[in-house]
Design a protein that fits this description.
By secondary structure, the chain is of the alpha/beta class. It is built from 16 helices and 27 strands. The strands form 6 sheets. It has a 9-stranded mixed beta sheet with strand order 2-1-11-10-12-13-14-15-16, with helices on both faces. Strands 4-3-5-6-7 form a 5-stranded parallel beta sheet. Strands 17, 18, 20, 21 and 22 form a 5-stranded antiparallel beta sheet that branches.
């Protein structure tokens, strides 16, 4: 059944129980005894501190959003983009889109103006709902974006080029929209990914994928109605949203936390009595370092109810989990592997009972199958390295509008992930390397070609290659290998200052002045660069240690 059915059942069964809490702390708030001291703040603004809504209000807000979109001409099969930070508005809007039969298209809030335009045109979106933080980026291409496309502003002081969500939604019904039957076989969502070129692909999923992700998450982590899930990553990301959907299945509370400082995370767990927390490696490391330094004193918090810590989005150092269990010996632990093409995390997962296998990504998830193949698609011997392939009800339908790219990765229902892996004698899978050159830093994908194209504009640069290097905290950092033009001299400071025009997460973290090797066809030999400078990075780290 479509995931909207879970929401509607919760609105009946748990109507007056809390569904979502938004915590929006500032620096000084971490010193207060409890965010609940501020009380419930509910208004048409993105209020600070703490807000909450019940399951009944959640469903009514989704219905109002759906009826608003229908009144503005959105119909089944249309595509509606969301460009917003995490808030109490985000999920009701997402479900409102689904309730119309339209396709929800979450945008990465890191996109710049040109990326927003590119993705809007790639997915052929019919409307964009955006928050106050994105006025400038939308306005930069407002004329092109508004051609045959609704621009709806979710916030106060609506700009002239958009329509006000809050003004319009006040005049629509809160009853369930009458749009006919929506089935698991109908299209539901488009998420964006990218290959080695750095250009996003539009990943189309049916409602079946969303339902699979929700039911799988609830089963994998044994989520009950009494659990409280802490959600920190952005909701545009498949990982954050589909981990939360385990709570949706059982009607349990979830907390949306804005901010990832270690004290803020621990305080949220304590104040809201969270039981399940999904962390990225850097956040877990920061918490442990805070405990070690004494800036986090565990005795000052209510943490006995916290039962599960799980990590995804990047390889997890086994030493991190060993240290975590030292301070939280009663915690269950799980790690998840997935990609947007497989509706996010969980097609492979470690399993809470398999902590002895830390280092592996795990075994096939609920209703999933896996295999490892060689260059010609043949299944490799157990223990040998090959490409990881997955098959299950969460596999994407296609790359929207890109048949060639779809054929490359979808073969007889199997999704070829582009990740190299091996399977041990117990059936557990381990990632070895990525075929793609995408850098995963702190759970975020960084696309080297985009940085290379930018750096090529610097007049002193002859050639440049951007690669990922191992990093203890972030998993990987981006490094720019720069070949300077003959007769020119260049400094690291020059490159870093020039890179300030890039968004912070795209700026190279390490600059290396060297020649850039290319093969006979003109392609950069990145495996050789990673092997050389990755080894040097490890040696340097060990020397420093």
């Amino acid at each position: 059944m479509p995931v909207m059915d879970f929401l509607e059942k919760n609105a009946v069964k748990y109507r007056d129980e809390i569904a979502l809490v938004e915590l929006n702390p500032t620096e000084k708030d971490t010193q207060r005894r409890s965010w609940k001291e501020y009380g419930l703040i509910e208004s048409n603004t993105f209020a600070p501190y703490r807000r909450e809504i019940t399951w009944g209000v959640f469903d009514e807000k989704a219905n109002r959003c759906a009826n608003l979109l229908l009144s503005r001409g959105i119909r089944k099969g249309d595509k509606v983009a969301i460009l917003m930070y995490n808030s109490l508005e985000w999920l009701p809007i997402y479900f409102g889109i689904l309730k119309t039969g339209a396709i929800a298209v979450p945008f990465n809030f890191r996109y710049d103006a040109e990326e927003i335009l590119y993705c809007a045109e790639l997915a052929k979106v019919d409307a964009i709902l955006f928050g106050p933080e994105f006025i400038g980026r939308i306005e930069a291409n407002a004329e092109r974006l508004s051609r045959e496309r609704l621009l709806i502003y979710v916030g106060d002081n609506c700009p002239s080029f958009a329509e006000s969500y809050y003004l319009m939604i006040a005049n629509v019904a809160s009853a369930k929209p009458n749009v006919g039957k929506i089935t698991d076989d109908d299209y539901a969502a488009i998420y964006f990914s990218s290959g080695t070129t750095g250009f996003p692909k539009a990943i189309l999923h049916k409602h079946q994928s969303l339902t699979q992700a929700a039911e799988m998450e609830q089963i994998h982590h044994a989520t009950t109605h009494n659990d409280v899930f802490l959600c920190i990553p952005p909701l545009y990301h498949t990982g954050a949203k589909f981990h939360w959907m385990g709570s949706l299945v059982v009607g349990s509370k979830a907390v949306l936390l804005k901010g990832a400082k270690p004290e803020t995370i621990i305080k949220a767990v304590s104040d809201e009595l969270c039981t399940i927390v999904w962390l990225l490696v850097p956040w877990a490391q920061d918490i442990l370092e805070g405990i070690e330094r004494g800036t986090i004193k565990l005795k000052d918090y209510n943490l006995d109810q916290w039962r599960l810590m799980h990590i995804g989005a990047q390889p997890v150092p086994p030493s991190l989990i060993r240290m975590w269990k030292k301070y939280f010996p009663h915690h269950d632990y799980d790690t998840n592997y997935g990609l947007s093409e497989s509706t996010g995390p969980g097609c492979v997962h470690l399993g809470m009972e398999n902590i002895n296998k830390v280092g592996a990504i795990g075994v096939p998830g609920y209703r999933w199958r896996c295999k490892i193949v060689g260059e010609n698609g043949e299944i490799v011997e157990q223990g040998k390295v090959g490409e990881l392939c997955v098959k299950g009800p969460g596999v994407m339908t296609c790359y929207y509008g890109n048949e060639e790219a779809t054929r490359e990765v979808l073969k007889d229902g199997w999704l070829f992930t582009g990740d190299m892996a091996r399977q041990d004698e117990d059936g557990f899978y381990y990632l070895v390397d990525r075929k793609k050159d995408v850098i995963v830093s702190g759970g975020e994908n960084i696309y080297p070609v985009q940085i290379e194209d930018f750096l090529h504009k610097y007049p002193k640069i002859k050639d440049v290659a951007v690669i990922g290097l191992p990093d203890k905290r972030l998993g990987e950092i981006s490094a720019a290998i720069i070949e300077v033009k003959d007769g020119e001299s260049c400094t690291e400071e020059e490159i870093l200052n020039f890179s300030m025009e890039l968004p912070r997460y795209k700026r190279p973290k390490k600059i290396i002045f060297e020649s850039v090797p290319r093969n006979a066809t003109g392609k950069i030999e990145k495996p050789a660069l990673r092997k050389r400078f990755g080894a040097e990075q490890l040696v340097a780290r060990e020397t420093e240690g």
